């Protein structure tokens, strides 16, 4: 018996190929649909595979040969012993050839039945074996899938805990995880899941916003609570732009609550060989700016504000509103990364009532948890700009490095 497989675009086409090769005695043993695989599988059609068989022609024994091969007698006496009466001829026996032909046909029918029976049994065996193999393969796939799903679930739980330990607000952690539902947790590798979470957090932080120096002069106003490092931050940024970018800078001190603040700013101005003015009211602001309009950047240092002091809040708002709209004004809220999350919420909400702002985080060197950077970014919707990590001027300041912060939030270093 010959067994062979044939393929076609349809089941009928595959069967036709088998019948064409094996003829009318072809026996179809199995039909299997082959689904496409790979990246472009959704755009491809299935093919069909047919397993077919045909019996090999066996050499059969022809009984008529026995008569043909019989030894003939050496001599035959053809003379009749008696006179033959032609009118009384005895009917002849049926020809031997006819009897032998019938015998041969009957034997061939029996052999065909036996062959068909064997092929049917073989087909059943093959089908059972195919079903068994497919079931075993499916069991292996399910086992591997369940194992990967369990491993991934443990990884996700660990990732969740790492974000919570880094003081990311639980509602934002849940938000990130909910948005990642499109990722196949069970089917993908741990690296794929981590990469997806990493990319999602990068998008949530967004691109950092730096000072716009396209117009001259650019007015940079720093606001924020007392003690967060506004004056030092101004000195660092001004030094960077003057030393590294060759921009001319000037300073205006509007912090009349603390005499030491103005003196500190004057010290930095002297070091940078930059002019400095002090304004005592909002009415003086535009006059001071006009005197320095030839400089690329004018930095304004404001008084530290307690978010619970309504009078100070009103003064800061009046000061910011007094700056003429013809100037390119940008406001930067300076806050400390060491401040408690609850207080940061109150501070940022208070300053939101005064003005729109970009965010500057100070004192990153004094904390190991960076969750508040993401929390406040998502709470305020404000752009992140700069971070400081020490007291050295101008070295300890940099543009917000989104990738580095996300890596640290995810447990990297």
Question: Can you describe this structure?
Answer:
The chain has 413 residues and is an alpha/beta fold. Among the domains are: 145-205; 218-409, P-loop containing nucleotide triphosphate hydrolases (Rossmann fold). Helices cover 46% and strands 15% of the residues. The protein contains twelve helices and eleven strands. The chain has helices at residues 11-22, 64-68, 96-165, 170-179, 190-205, 230-243, 259-271, 285-291, 310-322, 341-352, 371-380, 402-409, and strands at residues 2-8, 27-34, 47-54, 218-223, 249-253, 276-278, 297-301, 328-336, 358-362, 384-388, 397-399. The strands form two sheets. An eight-stranded mixed beta sheet has the order 6-5-7-4-8-9-10-11, sandwiched between helices. Strand 5 (249-253), helix 7 and strand 6 (276-278) form a beta-alpha-beta unit. Helix 5 crosses helix 12. The longest helix is centred in the first third of the chain and has 70 residues, at 96-165.
